[in-house]
Fold this protein.
Amino acid sequence: MRKWTQYVGAVLLGGLLSSAWAEPLDLNTADAKALAEVMVGVGPAKAEAIVEYRKAHGPFREVDDLVLIKGIGAETIVKNRDKLTVVSPKP
């Protein structure tokens, strides 16, 4: 039984470390599936709303622009700030 718990612990630790070192997701290029997978408190519908907003209004200038999307507030942005980035679009 000890080997099993060590294995599970190693797998969980590896997952935590890999997610901690993962590159932030670019709001200007991410698709709805990636947004829903990475963001805390954002499911498929809200992720699709982010993509639709970007299509309608152009690229995001900063992560805080997410507050412009109905249903996304400051608390959601705080929870996800370290998971997201905004890369300026090339002219």
Remarks:
- The two ends are 58 Å apart (CA to CA).
- The longest helix spans residues 2-20.
- The chain has a mean pLDDT of 86.
